[in-house]
Every structure is written in C-alpha cells, then in structure tokens.
Amino acid sequence: MSTNSEAELKIAATDARVKDALDHARTTAQELYQALTDSAALRGGSIRADLETLPMKAKAIAASLKVSLGVQSVEVKKSVEEASAYLEASGARIAEALRSSGQAAEISIQQAIIDARTSVEKISEAVAAKRASVCGSNEKK
Questions:
Q1: Residue 130: which pLDDT band, with cuts at 50, 70 and 90?
Q2: Which of 26, 35, 126, 139 has the fewest other C-beta atoms within 10 Å?
C-alpha cells in the first residue's frame, strides 16, 4: 500500500470518528435540552432531583466536543467552540437554579434551556460544515 493511500485511510478514519463524535454530541445535547424542558414543566421538589445530574451532563458533552477540535476545519472548530461555551453556560445556570429558589430559579432554568437549545444549533452547524467540507473535498477529486 502506498504512503498516500495509508494517509488517506487515516484521514478517512479520523473523519469517521469526528463525524461520530459530532453526531453523538448533538444527540446528547438534544437529550440535555429535552431533559431541561421536561424539568421546567414540572413543579415542586421533583424538579430539583431531575436537575441535579444535568450540570455534569452538560460538562461531559462540552468536554467531548473539545476533544474533537484538533482535526476540524476552522468553520467547524468555531461552531464546536461556541457550542461548548453554551453547554458550559447551561450547566452553570442549572447549578445556579439549584442554589436559588422561586423566580430566580425559574429564570436560571429558562436561560439554561435557551443555552442548551443554542448549543444544539451550534453543533448542528458544525455537523453541516463538516459534511460540506467532506462534499467539497470529494468534488475536488
């Protein structure tokens, strides 16, 4: 096998892992968003139990996104970095909601929902940019 073919196979394998990582991050971010909206619909003590695990989930998603940054195009990196920032903000706002009560907690939860939704949008932008770069590189061949 030639060196170029080996290099192309390594790039293809890396692209597949990154695609899988971005798709996985998008799915888990969507799950985070859904869990937040479901929790916001609840009232009373059960909302706290639902929210307690979500800051760690947001951090885990952001961390997995950051791992995939090294092999990305500039456009994909920008979207991934923005998504990570929104996920971290969402986690911080959830933690803030757990420390507060009443109207302040509700405002924090609503802002966490907005941040989570925005992170999903940014991950989707990264997926689209990744697909566009793959299509563009295939057309050049």
A1: confident
A2: 139
The arithmetic mean of pLDDT across residues 76-96, rounded, is 92
* Domains annotated on the chain, with CATH: 3-140 (1.20.1420)
Q: Among residues 71, 87, 74, which one has the least CA distance to residue 19? A: 71
Query: How does pLDDT run across 16-25, given as a tens digit for each residue?
Result: 555 678 888 8
Closest Cα partner for 114 from 24, 32, 21?
Answer: 32
Separation between Cα atoms, residue 104 and residue 32, nearest integer Å: 21
Task: Tell me the H-state helices in the chain.
Answer: 3-41, 46-52, 54-67, 74-99, 102-140
